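A common beginner's mistake is to predict each chain separately and then try to dock the pieces by hand. The better habit, illustrated here, is to supply every component at once so that their relative placement is modeled jointly.
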Amino acid sequence: MSVFTDVPLAQKLEGSLLKTYKQDDHPNKMFLAYKVCMTSQGQPWVSSVVLKTRMQIAQDPSLTYEYTPVMGMKSFIQASLNLLFGKDSQVIMENRAGGVHTVGDSGAFQLGAQFLKTWRRDSQIVYIISSQKEPHGLVFQDMGFTVYEHTFWDSTRLCLDPSMLLNVVEQAPHGCIFVIGNIGNCKLTQGQWTQLMVLMKSKQIFPFFDIPYQGLATGDLDEDARFLQYFVSRGFEFFGSQSLSKNFGIYDEGVGILVVVALSNELLLCVLSQLMDFAWALWLNPPTTGARIITSVLCNPAMQGEWKQSLEGAVENIMMTKETGHKEKLRLLGAPGSWDHITEQKGSHSYLGLNPQQVEYLVKKKHICIPKNGRINFTCINSYNIDYITESITEAVLFTKDSEK
Amino acid sequence: MSVFTDVPLAQKLEGSLLKTYKQDDHPNKMFLAYKVCMTSQGQPWVSSVVLKTRMQIAQDPSLTYEYTPVMGMKSFIQASLNLLFGKDSQVIMENRAGGVHTVGDSGAFQLGAQFLKTWRRDSQIVYIISSQKEPHGLVFQDMGFTVYEHTFWDSTRLCLDPSMLLNVVEQAPHGCIFVIGNIGNCKLTQGQWTQLMVLMKSKQIFPFFDIPYQGLATGDLDEDARFLQYFVSRGFEFFGSQSLSKNFGIYDEGVGILVVVALSNELLLCVLSQLMDFAWALWLNPPTTGARIITSVLCNPAMQGEWKQSLEGAVENIMMTKETGHKEKLRLLGAPGSWDHITEQKGSHSYLGLNPQQVEYLVKKKHICIPKNGRINFTCINSYNIDYITESITEAVLFTKDSEK
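With all components supplied together, the output reads:
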């Protein structure tokens, strides 16, 4: 008689789309939903500085490989915070921004959620944008939080709509947690920013920022983190998950930071000490290879310069794929409608602007795997598959136009 | 008004001894409780193959650094299981031993405890040996398990006593979880092994093995894992935390495995699928650098041979430190009593065999930081500090003898 008799096979939450793709044996099958930035050769993008740095580290005889403290690598945390807020920013100078080195961004959400579960018992409600529900929303859900999904994508007007965001905040209950991802694409006016923050402040909504790839949205590191300054200057306290895996191209090292901003250094130290207790039980010591690579690059001006250039290059490639590779091809093929919404969205992941019927057509008839909301990773498109993809999209749009008649 | 007003400074559980040591400004202060094997130069021990392998990996252009699956690196898991059970062992051939690649051994305990919390609700009691209470016992405790500490160290007879172990098992309640660490030092006879397993089987006690440094106890990898065979052959199902950080000397990579043995492949797959769900929320993807280094070594016979030699060398050094460095010096200094118990215990960490008063004397008067139970890391002793340490121990023993009068 087995101890495990009652244990059923788990319904795997993750990668259901990738699973569909893998099980498909059609020769033209394609997967446009990889999480990471891909190169034109269909490989995960890696910043050119990373290879060099990896070699330097391997050759460095002065390094010891002893356990890191529970908090993680201090120099890594400091360098990452400087990148986010600016070395001379007030919040850094006042010692009220800190962080815990975590195992990837999932680790940061796990850690933050454990803290909020324990120390904000009166508000266990989380709002999260649909595209972030998996995996981050589920971390909260598994822990007993009530998780509400929402979206700012207006599928009729084909744009990200700030007023949809404001509506959600208006309806959200007092004291809830708001996970805020790449809000830059939402193009809030100064007035809307003010309105958003006044609303959040009055309702004591706690922001939990997700900064998955600073620099890979606009190519400008400061620009991509600017919205944080707004919240800092308005006196918000918040958490943030800062991942540096994607913007360095070290996906498999599980390197992240849970960023904490508090009103004072004293408060910050209390929060960090509690977080360390949780981290202690979760993994005791975070892994260091990724953190070492990042710190080496960030602390060396020449290397940092090269890294920034590589980010700019990656973002140029994304925009080129969207502009000439995709939008232009669709126009030439006579795909009905404007495709400006594709280039109006920054970053690798953007809404194609297709309706559910069109998405289904691509998945079922053309074996192109894309999520139901039609938000794809544009860097999965390259010279080898662009023709098939744009032709299929054109077909999907025309097909569904015909079937509407 | 801060969100964090009610958050107190956490009482850090870990490293209280290390903290005492760091705060001590006495010139002769010493710390004999490091977790890891130290070299004669006072540095954490690193197997000579690791540096080479690290370089080879950094130079390998064929490697991609994409996210690993939630389960972790398959080749790493397989190589580690082969190391533990033997490539041709029945349990491997029958596909009923598996594992999840975790973030260090703490991650393995976290993952295993989460599973047991969910799937063995009727028995939330854990027995653990005192020296493992921190950190592993606390992981269970934090999760709501009732944790009982015990010890097999007979402080009068100065030996590890199997009958103390058997007594604990006899008194333990039906269905509890038994964390079993380096049991090799306990020197059970064949009859006692049988008795132990019959007892555990009849009480449906679930074993959770801790294999923190296979090969670093006796210098023989198979010997150090032999006790697992006993449990396998008796038809036990169990979990095991297998850490390969210490026996490779890659402490900061957070590399571990939660090993699962089930009665059938079908049961195993169910358990692994549930564990993956937990891992998914905890860290999503485990870090790979450490796993890559280990796999490269284990899958290359020449490298594996070199690694085994380095383990043998490390163990020889440990025994030499204990024998000629420590026991012999104490004899020459005329420290009363026999010190044979030091060499009778295998591995780097062993009981000094001092009473609480003697330990206190060393800590307070001589500034030698050692745990209350007197279990020290013998590799912290080297030619630079041996004289001071043995003289201090002799003094402590004589002092407490005098004060007894």
